[in-house]
Automatic annotation (TrEMBL):
Residue ranges of domain DUF4220 in the record: 2-173
Protein name: DUF4220 domain-containing protein
Organism: Setaria italica
InterPro entries in UniProt: DUF4220, DUF594
UniProt superkingdom: Eukaryota
Pfam families: DUF4220, DUF594
């Protein structure tokens, strides 16, 4: 019925597709009918009923006319014997061993040719034949109707392909006119109570680990002490960003989003904050270093998506408790928010729904603080009064608002977000049970398991210390990164960040590589 419905979609629009569709549908029925019949034949009762217990004295012996002086029986001759005596093997599987006089004669003759090893080889081949009956379609393939299917199926497929090619342009045009089938399937899944299962399957996929993620992990892991790799959850990265004059660190301001909340809530907050930041940040004009920044943005997005994938699809790979209700509540509220505002004039038709939703969250829930005072540290953005139910996306939008502000005082927001996600991934791999890691290998394994080995190898072989730049010269360790807001001035409405003659040298070297640019570089500002 499912296949018929899928075929109905193009056929209802383009009548010329009826014949190729029927050919493929008929072929599919034949093939799956053959499979079903093979399963029936593999039943023990069916095997019992197929036993031939009639008088077989007139059956031709497999080794009649075989001259003993010609040497031992070869594999093909033993296979003939295995087929001849196969009733005995099948009867053993039905708890009713049956052998006839002619079968015993064949066994005796085979032993005279090959000695005792004949029985061993005979049994091996018979078990192989029994496997074919129980677990393959051999029982129906080697029949007259099985042979007919072998001829009809490829012929029908070829004809259907040629007919489809002749009508492909019309068919594709028809499919483009047919609204959104994914939406229809989602509605059907919701109607039958399988919405959550459908969303997990439909909106998750397997991707190859990109070079961006690989390079980022290999660069960032060795920078951290072992204890922080295992337990920091973002604390190490945020503590390295400090405010001048004893103003504390960025961690003091947003620790609520990493260590002072449950790990599953922390994943949700940073996932939404990352998405809002990436959608709303102002991209730099083409220049040296922009390509590297986009590679980092891609890696950050992949890490963020991967951690949410673990949360939703593989919660056993995360340290518990992982509450699915938190995810469901946030999704339900976001759907409601989208339905309320999706027709607003503020929605940009040139943007994707994801980008429009991110901008909506930024407009609705970003925290309010003075952007004009660049010398003041960022304030805590957790909006407890505005978020009594603890919905992650509300706190996340406030966090993203701070990250998008020029007054945040963060030298490189993308590097900071990447550092937080890496520490969360390290925390997850350290606190996931060994049983979960081992069990997941049966499905191909996860990045979180590979990360566990990378962390332990890094710690065991002491791959820590100085960070080097691309040209091989030593740079500063991450511990030396600091923010000197008193040496930064923001000029004009373009958000240019200019460096004072004696300021920010250590910070600039520690945060990014020197590409020989002018001291004045373009900053970022919220849209």
């Amino acid at each position: 019925m499912g296949a018929a419905y899928v075929l109905y979609q193009p056929v209802a629009i383009q009548k010329t597709l009826i014949l190729p569709s029927l050919l493929m549908f008929g072929t599919g029925l034949l093939k799956y009918g053959e499979r079903t019949w093979a399963l029936k034949c593999a039943n023990i009762d069916s095997i019992r009923s197929s036993l031939d217990v009639s008088d077989d004295r007139n059956r031709r012996q497999p080794y009649d006319g075989r001259v003993r002086t010609a040497g031992e029986l070869d594999s093909e001759e033993i296979l003939l014997g295995a087929h001849y005596i196969f009733n005995a093997c099948k009867s053993l599987f039905t708890d009713d061993l049956i052998t006839s006089g002619t079968e015993r004669e064949a066994i005796t003759t085979g032993i005279e040719f090959n000695g005792g090893k004949y029985m061993y080889e005979l049994i091996e081949m018979q078990l192989s034949l029994m496997y074919d009956i129980l677990y393959t379609k051999a029982a129906v393939i080697y029949t007259w109707y099985g042979s007919c299917i072998r001829v009809i199926s490829p012929a029908a497929t070829l004809v259907s392909f040629l007919l489809f090619e002749l009508n492909s342009s019309h068919a594709y045009a028809g499919q483009r006119r047919n609204c959104d089938r994914t939406e229809l399937r989602s509605r059907i899944a919701k109607k039958v109570g399988l919405e959550k299962w459908w969303n997990k399957i439909h909106y998750s996929s397997t991707i190859k680990i990109s070079d961006s993620i690989r390079d980022l992990l290999l660069k960032e892991i060795p920078r951290r002490p072992l204890g922080d790799m295992r337990n920091a959850r973002g604390r190490w990265t945020l503590q390295k960003i400090r405010y001048p004059g004893g103003g504390g660190s960025l961690y003091d301001e947003i620790s609520w989003s990493v260590n002072d909340t449950d790990f599953d809530q922390s994943i949700l907050i940073w996932h939404v904050a990352t998405d809002v930041y990436l959608c709303c940040r102002r991209r730099q004009p083409a220049a040296d270093g922009v390509e590297e920044a986009e590679r980092l943005a891609k890696a950050v997005k992949e890490l963020s998506d991967y951690m949410l994938f673990l949360y939703v699809v593989q919660p056993h790979m995360l340290p518990g408790p992982v509450r699915s209700t938190r995810y469901d509540n946030n999704c339900d509220d976001l759907v409601t928010l989208w339905e309320q505002h999706s027709t607003d004039q503020n929605m940009d038709s040139a943007l994707t729904p994801r980008e429009n939703l991110a901008r909506l969250l930024y407009r609705e829930y970003r925290d309010k603080y003075d952007d004009d005072d660049a010398s003041s540290p960022a304030v805590s953005v957790q909006m407890e009064d505005n978020n009594p139910h603890g919905l992650a996306y509300i706190d996340a939008a406030g966090l993203a608002g701070m990250l998008l502000s020029e007054g945040s005082g963060i030298p490189d927001v993308l590097e900071m977000i990447a550092g937080v996600w890496i520490e969360m991934l390290c925390y997850a791999t350290r606190h996931c049970s060994e049983v979960s890691h081992a069990k997941q290998l049966s499905s191909g394994g996860e990045l979180v398991t590979a990360m566990g080995l990378l962390v332990e190898y890094t710690a065991r072989y002491g791959i820590h210390g100085e960070v080097t730049t691309k040209n091989g010269e030593p740079g500063m360790t991450a511990a030396e990164v600091s923010v000197h807001l008193d040496s930064i001035s923001i000029t004009g409405a373009t958000g240019e960040i200019c460096e004072e003659p004696d300021g920010m040298n250590a910070a600039a070297n520690g945060v990014s590589e020197d590409h020989g640019h002018d001291a004045c570089t373009e900053g970022t500002e919220s849209p």
